[in-house]
Amino acid sequence: MAAPLANPGPVGSPGAGFGGGWRSFLGLPVPALCWEFLRRNPSYREDFARAVRLGSAIDRRWGLSAAADPELSADEGRVVWRADVAPGIVVPMERATFGSARRSPLARLSPIIGDDGAHVRLPSGLQVQLRDGATSAGPLVVVLSYDADFRLRVRAVDALRRADTTETPPRSRLSSVQQERLARALGALDGVQSHRSYREIAAQLFGDIGDLAAFKTSSVRDVTIRLVRRGRALMAGGYLKLLRGGF
Description:
Blueprint: H1 30-38, H2 42-54, E1 90-95, E2 112-114, E3 117-121, E4 127-131, E5 140-142, H3 150-163, H4 176-193, H5 198-206, H6 212-216, H7 219-244
Parallel strand pairs: 1-4
Antiparallel strand pairs: 1-5, 2-3, 3-4
Helix pairs in contact: 1-7, 4-5, 4-7, 5-7
């Protein structure tokens, strides 16, 4: 069970409190981007409120290791994902029986206790899962399952190695076009959750779109509708597929 939730803030209505426009989502690392979709999900928000009220764990279907306040960003809420749903983001480590402790960014970060053990979350969203009583002070050994996700796991280990020298997020596997599309989908989702019309959403996403008559027959309207649908699909669980692919 996740650690008790201390003094959680109020849970607002879906779509509320997410200002900044779609461009503010550009450049977010994949783990944070996935959280942005999940935190907008009304069912997750209800589940979080229930967990706070009853002092219970959240549903496993969300993919989180520990409950996270949907009013907070991924960094503020210290969002951690389960190792089984994010093999390209979570690096499992155990206490080593050889070697010695080394200087590491892990040592200065406090663990987050979740359903699948303790996690240390780096600023990039990369996580280390401390298994079998291991501590961030080390010495530690990486445990990699040789399975269908092995390449993702190796990439996560390489990202951890790079974190020794920089806090810059790992280079995204998403192209700039993919990142922009996802950012617009988030913006479209915010618009529809705020009960804006497709025309109002399109204006926020693309700027001047002309009068209503022109908009009704324009390709921008079709693009906007597709972005709304994609945003809803990602919020409803599609973010898990995005998350699984790692950074």
